[in-house]
Amino acid sequence: MTISQQIPVATLGMPRIGRRRELKFALESYWSGKSSAADLLATAKALRAATWREQHDRGVSKIPSNDFSLYDHVLDTAAMVGAVPSRYAWKGGEVPLDIYFAMARGKQGETAGCGHAGHEHAVQGHHLTAMEMTKWFDTNYHYMVPELTDDQTFALLSTKPIDYFLEAKALGIHTRPVILGPVTFLKLAKSPAEGFNPMALLPRLLPVYEQLLRRLKLSGVDWVQIDEPALVLDLNPNERAAFEFAYGQLSKAAPELKIMLATYFGPLGDNHETAISLPLAGLHLDLVRAPEQLETVGRLAPKDLVLSLGLIDGRNVWRANLPAILDRIKPIVAGWPMDRVEIAPSCSMLHMPIDLRMETALDVDVSSWLAFAAQKTEELVVLAQALSEGREAAAGALKASAEAAAARATSTKVHDPLVEGRIASIDDAMKQRKSAFAQRSRVQAAALGLPPFPTTTIGSFPQTPEVRKARSAHVKGELSYVDYETFLKKETEAAIRWQEEIGLDVLVHGEFERNDMVQHFGEQLSGLAFTQHGWVQSYGSRYVRPPIIFGDVSRPNPMTVRWWQFAQSLTEKPVKGMLTGPVTILNWSFVRDDVPRSDACRQIALAIRDEVTDLERAGARMIQIDEAAFREGLPLRKSDWKVYLDWAVECFRLASTGVGDATQIHTHMCYSEFNEIIDAIAEMDADVISIETSRSKMELLDAFTSSKYPNEIGPGVYDIHSPRVPEVGEISDLVMLARERLSDGQLWVNPDCGLKTRKWEEVRPALVNMVAAACALREKVQAGGFPDS
Ligand code: GLN
Ligand code: ZN
After folding, report:
1. Measured at the alpha carbon of residue 788, what is the angle toward residues 783 and 789, in degrees to the nearest 5?
2. Which domain holds residue 591?
3. Which of 284, 456, 618, 673 has a CA between 20 and 30 Å from the CA of residue 151?
C-alpha cells in the first residue's frame, strides 16, 4: 500500500507551554523586564518548531499551526480582527505586544515621568483593567472574553495564522492552520450594551475571515481547521442560522481552500442537521464524549464529506484500548472509502500534559495506564496504520495497548473491595442530617451562642513569601520536618491570637500547611497520583498539575484533625474545621474513565465524610466543606444539568451529614451564578453557606431570598481580589443590601473568599473594618434602630 492511501492523522492542537514550562518562564521574565520581547518571541518560535517537528517525526500528516498562542487563542482572535476595547487606547494597526498583554493582564498605571518607552497608552496613575476571563467550555482552561460594542468594526490586523504556516513551511513542514470560527468567537463574546447580542455583528466580522481565508490560500494552504465548539451547545434558531450564513459565505471566499470544521466537547445533538448541511470539506466529531455520533452523522452526512474521527480522549490522561476502539468503529467505517476518514483526538490536546516520559516518580503500573499528548499522538498513528494497512501492520502496539487495558481493569491498585463494598452499602440515612434545619439551627444557636451577624473568614490567611519559602525548603529537604512544623505552629498561633484580638467570632487556623486546596487532600488519599511535570495551562502563564484519580479512593488516616486540634487548643472561640468538598476535588482532577464520574465522586465523598466525623469526634463544632468548583462542573447542555446536580448534591450530603445536629456544617462557593441552581444549593442543606457577592453589590444574592433559601448565609462583603481595603461604611452598606433580601437571623459577615493571595497589610485593616461594621449593625439592631427586614 502506498503512502497516499494512509489514513491521515490530525492532532487538532498541541500544548503550547513546553515540556519544562519554557513559555511561562519566558513570559514572566519579559513581564518583569528581565528579558526583551525578542527573547520571548525567540523562545516561542523554538517551542513551535519543536512541536511541529515532533509531530512530523511521529507520522502526523495534518499538523496544526496557529494552535500556539503567547497567552490565549481567543485573545489572539480578538486582536487579529481588531476587537480591542477602547480603554487600551489602541491606535489601529497590528495590536502591539504591550497592548495585547494589557488586555490579558491589565496594567498598573505608571506615574507621569516614569519613562518607560512603549507604555504611553497606560492611563496615567490609574489601573488599566484586564479583559474578563472565563472558563473555556467545561475545561479548566480560561479564555479572555471578547468585548464587543454595537458599533464595533473589524479589520484583519494580524497575519499570525499565515506567518506560522510559512514559519513551518520554512522548516519543511506543511501544516493545517487552525483558527477559531467566527460563530463561536461571537458566541463567547460579551457586550457592555444592555440587550445587544454580539451575534448581530456576524455580517461585519465575516469579511475579515473571508480575507484571511483568501490570504491563507494564496500562501499555499490547502486545508484549514476552523474550530466551532459552539456547535455542541444549546443553540437557538438564530444561532443555527448564523452557522449557515457564515459557512455559506466562507466556502465561497476561497473555493479551493478546504475547511475542516472542528466540533468538540460533546455531541452535536440537535445541531447535527445544521452541521452536516454546511458546505464543508470536512467535519470533526468528538467520538469520546459522544461515540454514538459516528453512526448517525456517518449515515446522514454527504458522502464526499471527510469525517475526522475524534477517537482518542483529548480531555483525559488515560491510555486508550486501541483494539477495542477498532472493534467499535469497524462495522461502521468498513464500507467507507479511505479518503473519507481522518484519525484525531476528541479535541485539541491543549488540555493534556505534554509527555509521560518526563515522569520518573510515578508508580510504574499507574504510568503504564497513562498517555499524555506525545503518547496520544503515537496512539493516533497506530490507529490510522491499523485502519489503513490492517491490524497486523501494528500488531505489537495493539497488543501492548490491550494488555495495559486488561491489567488496569483487574489491578488491585485500582479496585479496593472495601471501598466498593462501602459504596454498595450507601443508604438514604447516610444522605441526610438527623433533623431538619429549623431544629438543628435551634440546637446550634444554643450550643454556639454566637451574636447576630457573626463574623468569620473563609479559611486561608496570607501565604506570605516566608510561608512559601519554608514549604519549598521542606519539600527540598533543606528544612527538617520538626523545624517546618515549628514554623507552621508559630504562624497558626499568631493567626489565632490576632483573630481573637480583633474580635472575630468564628476563627480559622489559616491553612499555612496547605500547598493547594485540592492537592493537600489528594496527597493524603489513596487512589490519587501526582505528576512532577504534568502541567496544563489554566490561563496565560498560570499552569496547574491536576491530580490523577486512578483508583478507588479512601482515606487511610485523618488529614486535618491535628492542625485543627492545635488551633482549637489555643482559643475558647470556635475554630472551623476546613475541608475541600468531593465535587471540587473531582472537578479539579483528571478522573478515571472506567467508572462513572458520579461513582468516583461518591468515593471521595465517603473519604471526606470520614474526616468530617473525625473532626466532630475531636471536638470541632463547625466544619466547613468548600465546594469552589460545584457550579463549574455543570454540563454544557441544560438537559444534562439535573443528572449532574442530583449526584453532586448527593455527594456533598454524603460528605457532610454524618454529624450530630449540634455540629454546624459550612460550605463555601466562589463566584457563581446561583439563579438557575438555587434549588440544588438549598438541597445541599449546609447550615451556613458563604459566597462571593461584594463585586456584584449583592446582586448575586437575588437567588437567595429567604423563601428559596432558608439556611444561613454569609454573602461576601470584602472583595479579596483587590488590594484595596474596604471602609467600615462600605461594608455596612453591603450588609444593609443583603438585609433587603434576607432576614437578620440568616446573615453572617465574611469576606468573599480565602485570603491566601493577599498581604497581611491589606488583610489586617480590612478585617478590623469588617468586625467594626458587624458590631455597629448589632448595636443598631439591638437598639431597635432598624425596622424588621
Ligand atoms: N478554604 C479555602 C481558602 O480559604 C477556600 C478557597 C476557595 O474556595 N477558593 O483558601
Ligand atoms: Zn472562594
Report:
1. 130
2. 439-782
3. 673
Binding positions for L-homocysteine are 458-460, 511, 626
Q: Is 618 inside any structural domain?
A: yes
C-alpha cell at 723: 488590594
Domain co-membership, 605 together with 651: yes
**413-460: pLDDT as tens digits:** 999 999 999 999 999 999 999 999 999 999 999 999 999 999 999 999
Atom of ligand 1 nearest to the CA of 624: 1
CATH classification of the domain holding 142 = 3.20.20.210
Last residue of a domain, one of 387, 408, 429: 408
Mean pLDDT across the chain, nearest whole number?
Answer: 94
pLDDT for position 124: 40
User: Residue 694: helix, strand or coil by DSSP?
Assistant: coil
Same domain, yes or no: 454 and 351: no
Nearest CA to ligand 1 atom 6: 754
- Asked whether residue 701 is assigned to any structural domain, the reply reads yes
pLDDT band at 787 (very low <50, low <70, confident <90, very high): low
pLDDT tens-digit series, residues 516-561: 999 999 999 999 999 999 999 999 999 999 999 999 999 999 999 9
What are the b/e assignments for 119-145, b being 16+ CB within 10 Å?
eebbeeeeebebbebeebbebbbbbbb
**Whole-angstrom Cα distance, residue 532 to residue 687?**
39
Residues 523 and 565 in one domain: yes
CA 455 to centroid of ligand 2, rounded, Å: 16
Q: What is the pLDDT of residue 119?
A: 32
Instruction: Give how many domains the chain has, as a whole number.
Output: 2
Mutate to test the pocket of ligand 1, among 140, 456, 457, 460 (most ligand atoms within 8 A of CB): 460
Burial of 437 (0-12, 13-18, 19+ CB in 10 A): middle
404 lies in the same domain as 443:
no
Q: What is the pLDDT of residue 410?
A: 97
- 185-243 residue pLDDT tens: 999 999 988 889 999 999 999 999 999 999 999 999 999 999 999 999 999 999 999 99
What residues have a C-beta under 5 A from ligand 2, the ion? 670, 753
* Ligand 1, residues at Cβ distance < 6 Å: 458-460, 511, 517, 578, 626, 628, 668, 670, 753-754, 756
Three-state SS string over 552-588 comes to EEECCCCCCHHHHHHHHCCCCCCECEEEECHHHHHHC
**Known catalytic residue: 721?**
yes
pLDDT the model gives residue 126? 59
Could you tell me the distance, in angstroms and rounded to a whole number, from the CA of residue 328 to the centre of ligand 1?
44
CA of 510 to the centre of ligand 1 (A): 10
Question: Grid coordinates standing for 522?
Answer: 489528594
Of all protein residues, the one whose alpha carbon is nearest to atom 10 of ligand 1 is 754
- Ligand 1 atom with the smallest distance to the CA of 460 is 4
d(CA 708, ligand 1 centre) in Å:
25
